């Protein structure tokens, strides 16, 4: 084993021991024992900041938060990301994890100088006209300084902390090891896929470590709103940015929830709430790219009620399929149709087991009963989506991660909107955007394009299936693997196939009547009515009634 590898393993071991001892300190010794990590407990240990008896009296969610804060930047970030996942974490834990603070003492200015020189290739004095030595904000990954560029533009410079990447990579190695041990020793945890969660977190935090990602997010956001005069996005100065340095325009304004200051400045709070809500609906339903952390600290109100967005480290992405299915679910909720809501939930989510649809329907009806006598103006959209996510969790329907993130963002936007304007309603703002999306989806151009895409996929499938089947049969012949079939819960599929076959038969009969009637009309035989053969006219009439019935049947099913 090389010296470098041995040194790294030794550092990992020391850090692992530190993590285990902090877990013990906050009462998670049962977890440490289950994973077989008791050999890492330090003998004697260090003096605890809190008395063991006092820690023992704390509620479990608070213990988790305090442990994560003491474990450092990586674990704080993990907690912050988990706080956006109601599909994984119970509500009381989410509430506590949202309080996680990643504020740390700023690192020394001479280190800032060294990092900037290494990253940008020149001294601070040669790059900036002036540079504030004291950081005005510091977090676990880095800190922010105000500066003035040579051309006089005011800027903020985000500088990543020294050695933070090494610290995080060490912690990620340990987290992956803990996740694998958890799956091995606690079988019930496999339902939540601990290794998958760590993989998702590792991807997110590595993206956040690359400040270029945040810069590109800001550029994309800026482009999406370039024609909107109510939204402002700061410019990115790429010449003075790198993977570990991000220099962007300094925007100034009033914090969006500072009601007294907004009133003192004479701003129209109702207009601000409307501008923010419309911007958010555009992000979700048009752009499919939304600010996933829209708390008041990331939004400033500028002159003429313009809203300036900041901090683009965490962004949500919705593809066309999720957008369409989400709108279908939204419309089903507005129509208050439990069966349609269930269908749309199953279309949007993934389930690995048979669902008790009767109980699910009862829970959906109970949810809808809360809004029975309420108008659209009284519906809180964020709250409603969170209720749906909780119902989905109960029935093991895995909703897309973006959907849970969207619910949290909607709650934030609704909360800010209601602070600004007591009559604010997000559902009212969302409805026209959803209706426009439905109309656009049903336009002839969109339908033709969708048909062409589906035909292309079908063609590719027709070409691919024989090849894959041939490979599979060959492997079976060679004894590479054996194939065993097992089916469970196919009742819904069989019912759906029955309906499809019945519709197909219905359509064939309808086509036969139309063709037969057309032939009779051409023969010009038998009794006539208004110059046309009676049998042919009668056939077309039956075809029209049957055709109308088929259209009504399809429309009622909600599946075109």
From TrEMBL:
Signal peptide residue numbers: none
Domain of life according to the entry: Bacteria
Residues in ABC1 atypical kinase-like domain copies: 99-343
Pfam family, one: ABC1
Keyword Transferase part of the UniProt annotation: no
Regions crossing the membrane: 504-523, 529-555
Database matches in SUPFAM superfamilies: Protein kinase-like (PK-like)
Entry keywords, A to Z: Membrane, Transmembrane, Transmembrane helix
Family classification: Belongs to the protein kinase superfamily. ADCK protein kinase family.
Record protein name field: ABC1 atypical kinase-like domain-containing protein
Species the sequence originates in: Candidatus Infernicultor aquiphilus
């Amino acid at each position: 084993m090389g010296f470098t590898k041995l040194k790294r393993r030794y550092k990992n071991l020391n850090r692992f021991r530190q993590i285990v001892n902090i877990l013990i300190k906050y009462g998670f010794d049962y977890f440490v024992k289950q994973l077989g990590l008791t050999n890492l407990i330090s003998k004697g240990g260090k003096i605890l900041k809190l008395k063991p008896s006092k820690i023992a009296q704390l509620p479990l969610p608070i213990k988790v938060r305090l442990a994560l804060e003491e474990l450092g930047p990586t674990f704080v970030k993990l907690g912050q990301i988990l706080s956006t996942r109601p599909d994984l974490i119970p509500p009381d834990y989410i509430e506590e994890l949202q309080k996680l603070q990643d504020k740390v003492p700023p690192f020394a200015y001479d280190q800032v100088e060294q990092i900037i020189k290494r990253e940008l290739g020149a001294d601070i004095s040669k790059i900036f006209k002036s540079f504030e030595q004291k950081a005005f904000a510091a977090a676990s990954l880095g800190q922010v300084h105000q500066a003035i560029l040579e051309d006089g533009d005011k800027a903020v410079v985000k500088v990543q902390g020294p050695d933070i990447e090494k610290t995080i990579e060490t912690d990620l190695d340990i987290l992956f090891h803990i996740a694998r041990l958890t799956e091995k020793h606690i079988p019930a945890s496999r339902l939540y896929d601990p290794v998958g969660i760590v993989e998702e977190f590792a991807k997110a935090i590595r993206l956040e470590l690359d400040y270029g990602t945040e810069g590109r997010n800001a550029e994309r956001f800026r482009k999406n709103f370039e024609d909107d005069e109510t939204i402002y996005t700061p410019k990115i100065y790429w010449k003075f940015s790198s993977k570990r340095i991000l220099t962007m325009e300094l925007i100034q304004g009033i914090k969006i929830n500072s009601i007294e200051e907004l009133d003192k400045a004479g701003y129209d709070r109702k207009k601000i709430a409307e501008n923010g809500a419309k911007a958010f609906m555009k992000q979700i339903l048009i752009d499919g790219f939304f600010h996933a952390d829209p708390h008041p600290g990331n939004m400033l109100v500028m002159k003429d009620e313009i809203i300036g967005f900041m901090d683009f480290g965490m962004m949500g992405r919705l593809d066309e399929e999720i957008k369409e299915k989400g709108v279908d679910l939204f419309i089903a909720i507005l129509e208050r149709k439990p069966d349609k809501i269930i269908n749309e939930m199953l279309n949007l989510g993934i389930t690995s087991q048979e669902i008790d649809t009767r109980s699910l329907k009862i829970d959906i009806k109970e949810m809808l009963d809360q809004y029975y006598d309420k108008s659209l103006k009284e519906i809180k959209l964020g709250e409603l989506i969170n209720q749906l996510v909780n119902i989905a969790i109960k029935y093991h329907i895995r909703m897309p991660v973006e959907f849970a993130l969207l619910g949290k963002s909607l709650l934030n936007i609704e909360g800010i909107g209601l602070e600004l304007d007591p009559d604010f309603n997000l559902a009212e703002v969302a409805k026209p955007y959803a209706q426009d999306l439905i109309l656009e989806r049903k336009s002839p151009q969109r339908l033709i394009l969708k048909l062409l895409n589906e035909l292309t996929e079908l063609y590719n499938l027709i070409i691919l299936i024989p090849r894959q089947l041939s490979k599979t049969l060959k492997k079976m012949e060679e004894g590479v693997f054996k194939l065993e079939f097992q089916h469970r819960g196919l009742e819904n599929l069989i019912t759906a196939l029955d309906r499809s076959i019945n519709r197909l038969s219905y359509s064939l009969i309808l086509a036969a009547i139309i063709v037969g009637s057309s032939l009779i009309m051409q023969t010009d035989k038998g009794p006539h009515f208004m110059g046309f053969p009676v049998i042919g006219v009668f056939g077309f009439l039956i075809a029209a009634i049957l055709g109308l019935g088929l259209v009504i049947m399809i429309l009622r099913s909600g599946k075109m």
